[in-house]
C-alpha cells in the first residue's frame, strides 16, 4: 500500500517533468498551449503578450523579488519576475479610477484594449468595471489596415466589438484613428496616386469610418502622428502627395460624417515645450484661421520612469489656451527591467504627476492608459529590456502606480 502510494506520487510527477520547457524555449504567450514551466536553472520570463521564454534564472531573478523561484515557474509567476509583482509593494488605494477622475471634474479615466484580449475573462472583468474605466480606445481594430484592407471594402467587425462593449458597459469611446502613416494596407502605399485620387481616398476612408460610428464616439484621433520630433512634417504618402492639405481633408470628412464627435490630432513627444509641441500649436492655429474643424490635441504620453517633463502641465495649458481641449490619450510609463521597489515607487510618483497635471488644466478632459495591464502592453516588444509600464501588472494585480493615479485625481 505504502509502495503503491509512492508509485502514484511518482507517476503524478511525470507529466510535470515532461511539461518542462527546455532552455530558451517558449513557455507562454497568447495562444501558447505548450509547457509553461522551465527546466532547472531557468525561469519562464515574460517578454510580451505573445511570448514568454525560459531564460537562465541568474539573469531573471533578483534580490528584489525573493519570491521568484528559479525552477517550475509558470508563465504567470514569471510575469512577476519581469514586473516585480510577487514581492513588490502593493497598491492599497480604495479609490476607483474613473470615479475619482469624474469627481475631479473630468469626463473619464479610460484604457486601450484590443480584440485578442477579450477572450481573457479575468482581464475583461476588470475592463468592464466602469468605476475603473469610463472610456475605451481600440488599440488596433479601427486602424486603416483593419477597417479598409482593400479599397472600398470596409470591415467593421472588430471595431464594432469594442464599440458595443463600451456601450454595454456605459463607457465612452475614443476612435483611433483615420489617417496614420503606420498600419496602412499595401493598396494605399503601393500605388503612386495623384493628389485628386488620394484626396478622395482619404475623404472616403475617414467619412465612411467616422460615419459608421456616428453617435457612438466621444472623440476621434482623425490625424495620428503627423510630425517628426524636430517639428517638421512626417514625409509619409499623405504629406508627400497632398502636402499639409491631407489634414483638413480628413478633418472635414470626419466633421461631415459625425458633427457631434470631437476631432483630435494625436501625437507623442508633445509632453514638454519642444519644437514638436510648437509645430502642433501652429498647426492648430492655422486650421482655426482657415475655418477647419479641430476640437482637441491628443497628448499620447508614452513616458519613461523618472523622466516626466517638468513642463508637462504648462504644455497642456499652451494647447487649451487655443480654445481646444486636450486629453492624455495613450499613457504608459516604462522602466528598464527588472522592476524594483524603487522603480515602482518612482513610477507611482510619475503617474501621480501626469494625472495631477491633467486635473489642474480645466481643458484636459481625461486620461487613457495604453492598456491597463503589463500583460498586454506594447512596450516590451518595442523597447527591448523595458516594460512594466502599466498600472496593473501582468498578473492583473494593481501596482503602486494605481495609487499614484488615484492620488493624482484626489489630492
Ligand atoms: O494581429 C497580428 C497577429 O495575427 C499576429 O499573430 C501577431 C504576431 O506579432 O501580430 C498581430 O498584429 C500586431 C498588432 O499590434 C495586433 O496585436 C502587430 O504585429 C503589432 O505591430 C501591432 O502593434 C500595435 C502598434 O500600435 C503598431 O504600430 C500595438 O498593438 C498598438 O498598441 C500600437 O499602438 C500605437 C498607437 O496606435 C499610436 N501611438 C503609439 C502606440 C504604441 O505603439
From TrEMBL:
Pathway: Glycan degradation; xylan degradation. InterPro entries: CBD (IPR000254), CBD_sf (IPR035971), GH (IPR017853), GH10 (IPR044846), GH10_AS (IPR031158), GH10_dom (IPR001000). Its main location: secreted. Gene3D superfamilies: Glycosidases. It catalyses: Endohydrolysis of (1->4)-beta-D-xylosidic linkages in xylans. Residues 94-408 form the GH10 domain. Residues 19-55 form the CBM1 domain. Residues 62-92 are annotated as: Disordered. Belongs to the glycosyl hydrolase 10 (cellulase F) family. This is Beta-xylanase. It comes from Jaapia argillacea MUCL 33604.
